[in-house]
Structure formats: structure tokens, C-alpha cells
Amino acid sequence: MNRRDVMKTALVGSGLLSMQGALAASPARGKSSRRTFLLVHGAWHNALHWTRVTEALSGRGHQVVAIDLPGHGLNARFPSAYVSGDAAGFAQERSPQADVTLEDCAASVVAALQKLQPRAGGAKPVLVGHSAGGTVITRAGELAPQLIGRLVYLSAYCPVRMGSASGYGALTEARTGYGETLFVGDPGKLGAVRINPRGGPEYLEALRAAYYQDVPMADFLPFALSLTPDLPLSLWTSKVGVTKARWGRIPRSYIRCAQDRALAPALQDLMIREANAFTPGNAFTVESLEASHSPFASQPEKLATLLDGLR
């Protein structure tokens, strides 16, 4: 028996040969199912908030990119009163991000999609939007449907019939009884929908109860203190302007958050129905999570499993 046969016998006896074969086969399997995901955050959030989902999807062999929209994350600009702690001034100071538009944000998503385009025959990126990020991916889908393999709305605004997120925010279906006291100042005068992530304990508990109620306070604080106070008003009020020929031709999925207190399940379902009526030949596939508005924080592995299962 030569040395190679001795090694083979030892590996078979230890059970490692079959494992070695499985590992050798796994790159081919992983390569065939590998997808590219572009993750778009919601209001006041940034790319950092996707970290656990990014890690979970990357661990499944996918390419994952999360971006900061204009006016968010490392692109944010802060009111001087927010930095100084001047509460009265904070309620009145116009946002330094008031001029950021929905079109700016959609253009940034399109630019990211262009960088992620596959070689000939490869799968186009899956574009995922959370919450107010749904308006951004909807507009991006209208601008560049040829760059997107699938749109995924994670408890997100899909304002097809009424055009803007604010139109849906005014509906009876939007009311949950949570979060209504969190907003600071007059959005029209500020040029932004403003919150105070540096507020006191009672404010932070109200913020957690509205958006992250299934995340303990100690785990919520790193997410809360990474928020930007200003959502540029355009992302809330601007029309997405979708057409059947462009946005309407992209395959799409909706992941419902059944315990959502920020974007009520009834409102999620209304937008799903309206979008399906708009393009009955290209309806949403729908999945549900028993989660708050923020499953990227409370259930990142379950969320990654749902995204991984999309085909």
C-alpha cells in the first residue's frame, strides 16, 4: 500500500473523506446560487444598521452591499442645535439636508446598481428597501428597471396609487398608537422629518416601543444612537411616478412585519393589494415575519433566510 492509499484509508475511517468531498462540491453549489444584494435603509438609518443581515447573507455565499443614502450615515449633516443640545433651537433650525431630494437618493441607488452588474448571463442584483427606503427603490426601479433582478420591500412603502409615502401616512390604516409624539418641529419649516436620537430615557423608550419593540433596550441603544435626526422631507412627500412598462415589469417581493407598530400591517397589505391591481400579471410574492419594524436588528438570521430563499 502506497502513501496515498494509507491516507485514503485513514480519511475514510475518520469520516473526513466524505466531508472533504462535500466541501469540494460546495463551491460549485454556492456559485450557482450566489446572488448580489443591494440593501437600502429606511428613514434616519444608514448602512451600518444592515450589518447583521449583511454578515448572515455573506455567510451564505452572497455578495452584499449596503449603502448610505444622501443625507444619511456618513453623508449626514447635523443641525447645530442637535450638536449643542439646544432643545428650543433644535425644534426650529432648518435642516442642513433640506435640499436632498428623492431623485438624489434614487440616483445614488442606480449608481450603486451599475457597479454591481453581472457578467453576461449572470443574475442581476436584488434590490432591498426598508421602510421609507421603499420609496427610493420604487423610484430607482422606474429609472433603471434593466439593472434590477428583483425588488424586495421589507415592511416598506410602495406608494403606487397615491404616489408618495406621506399620502399613505395620512390614512386610517397607518394609525398604530405608537410613535406619534416622537417628531420634533414643523417638517414644512425644517425641510425634514426630525427625531431626536439623543433624547432622554423616556424619549428613547418611546422610540424603541414604536420601531424596535422586540429588541431589549441595551441592544437597541447602539441602533438608536447611530440614527441621523433628519429625514429630508422630499423622501416623504415626493411622488415616485411609476409606470407599468418600467417599474411594473420587475419581479418583486414583499416581506411583511406582522408586529410592526411603525408601518402598520394593514397599511402594508393595502399597498400590496394596490400594487398587484396595478400590474396583475406581475404580483408580489409575500412572506411574513413575526417581527417589529426592525427585523434587521431583532431577527437578522430569519430575515437573511427569507432573502436567501428568493429566486
UniProtKB/TrEMBL annotation:
Superkingdom is Bacteria
Provide an example Pfam family for this protein.
Abhydrolase_6
Q: Does the keyword ATP-binding apply?
A: no
Q: Does the keyword Ribosomal protein apply?
A: no
What are the AB hydrolase-1 domain coordinates in residue numbering? 37-304
SUPFAM superfamilies to which the protein is assigned, alphabetical: alpha/beta-Hydrolases
Q: Which UniProt keywords apply?
A: Signal
InterPro entries under this entry?
AB_hydrolase_1, AB_hydrolase_fold, Sec-Metab_Biosynth_Hydrolase
Q: Where is the signal peptide, in residue numbers?
A: 1-24
Q: By its UniProt entry, which PANTHER family does this protein fall under?
A: AB HYDROLASE-1 DOMAIN-CONTAINING PROTEIN-RELATED (PTHR37017), ESTERASE_LIPASE_THIOESTERASE DOMAIN-CONTAINING PROTEIN (PTHR37017:SF11)
Q: What name appears for this protein in its UniProt entry? A: Salicylate esterase
Q: What is the lineage of its organism?
A: Bacteria, Pseudomonadati, Myxococcota, Myxococcia, Myxococcales
